[in-house]
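Running this now, will post back.
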Amino acid sequence: MFRLKLIAGQDGLNKYVSWMCYTEDPDTIEFIRGSELAITTGLNVFRHSDNANDKSNEYVTEFLSQTINELINRGASGLIVNVGKYIETIPAAIIALCDRLQFPLFTMPWEIHTIDLMQEVCNMIVNDNQKNKTLEQNFYEAIFHPKSFDVKSLKNTPFANAEEFSIILMQIPENPFDGNTDQLQHYIDFSFNLRINLSPADFCWFLYENLAVYILHTDGRDTAAVMSKTAKKNKYFSDSRVAVSSVCSSYKGLEAEFYHAEFALNFYDDDKSVCDFNQLGVYKIFAEVKDLNLLKNFYNEVLGKLDSLGKAKREDYLATLKLYTDFGGRIQKTAEENAAHRNTINYRIHRISEILGIDVQDSENMYKIQTALHIKKLLEKIQR
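Update: finished.
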């Protein structure tokens, strides 16, 4: 329709386009926000030729080179040159530059009006944005108000026939744009998300409190690993934590998977890049206990009597208990790992049995103690 011709930068065609902008002066490019598709007629080339009485073609190369470098510095997605009047042909050096920088460069014949192209593309962007907003709202409902969710809302979307769903959460410690949510969303849309190698058809995302919530129609573990690595290199999100849920087979499981991913955020470890709900072991069972008082009461019933001790001794006894239960009641192994004498460990176990009023060596009691120690760890993480 507009007779656009791609002449360079084919390897950059996967970029998002947030809007279109018209520019004739490289100095005005600083006002764009990023991901715009720019268009120019080269009017400055004509002005330069007139003012400097310079009819050579060297200024075309200089003008386009400066314009393209400024656009790239500002995160633009590509450039369209309206050729035929001020710029007749694109110099080979510019084609080579755009290929090297993977910056899409198009030409459009002079008789095609720039305003017509801009209006058409911007209308397409508005329609796409509206569809994305609707999809975001639908998934928000599926997670937080599942009873009001209508599966028909997924029709004609990439999620329509999905057989897998998963959720990734990226916790944002604070809004880096002075609380401006629109600016934060724009940055994630057109800067951060470009770096995690996902097509727009692969996911939907929205902001919820201090979380960026990503819904995928695949297992999200590989993407979560890339997202975590990308966040650590990002000037705004280097302290962000990333968590991933397990996989559910229907949109009906999204409410639970959001909770699972949120629960996993408690288990962030500097040694691991992602808080993976799938790797939480016994804690996956605790995640289904919605009333934390049940867990607190169980801990108090089993180990609460140790609170009568001083803090240092209590922690020492709990550490010994953990090793003792981990090693199946083997005194010698517990002593070696605790860097203590065997008799010392025997004394502690005997003393703990007296305080708790149970036989710590009994297998059933040992299981209860292990469970209580897991609960203690969980409650400490949640409190932090």
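The chain has three domains: 5-112, 128-286, 292-383. More later if anyone needs it.
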